[in-house]
Amino acid sequence: QVQLVESGGGLVQPGGSLRLSCVASGNIFSIRNMGWHRQAPGQQRELVAGTTAGGTTTYGDFVKGRFTISRDNAKRTVNLEMNSLKPEDTAVYYCHALILSAGSIQWNNYWGQGTQVTVSS
Q1: How far apart are CA 96 and CA 46, in angstroms?
Q2: Mean pLDDT confidence for 63-74
Q3: Contacts of 47 (CB under 8 A, 6+ apart)
Q4: Distance (Å, whole) CA 1 – CA 61
Q5: What is the DSSP letter of 86?
Q6: Closest Cα partner for 118 from 95, 87, 94, 84?
């Protein structure tokens, strides 16, 4: 089995910063893409940031240079540094990873349970 566990969410004032972390564990042979999505109440889940195993990154249009995704392949972690946070960034943030388990030939996409980020004064 594979687990993704997020940490680092919370309440922050507008203009503040937060750092989200996610660690993958379990029966993992290889990890390809890792990243973060978010979902606000009543809205669809959207991509925040993603990174390939080789370090290529992609960001949602709304990020506009405010967030930075980083990854440690040896530790199986992906982090999201969020700066200049706005109230509209309030959402549940989900970590995800495309993982090949040992003994398997199929890559599967796994999700964490999510961590709440609230930006409010």
Answers
A1: 12
A2: 95
A3: 35, 36, 37, 58, 59, 60
A4: 34
A5: -
A6: 87
Strand order in 2-7's β-sheet? 2-7, 18-26, 77-82, 67-72
pLDDT for 21-55, tens place per residue? 999 999 999 999 999 999 999 999 999 999 999 99
* Alpha-carbon distances, residue 113 vs 23, 30, 63, 82, 116 (angstroms): 12, 21, 22, 19, 10
Of how many residues is the chain composed? 121
* 61 DSSP assignment: T
Closest CA to 48 of 11, 16, 75, 18: 18
Q: What type of residue is 97?
A: A
Joined together, the tokens standing for residue 98 give 């495309």
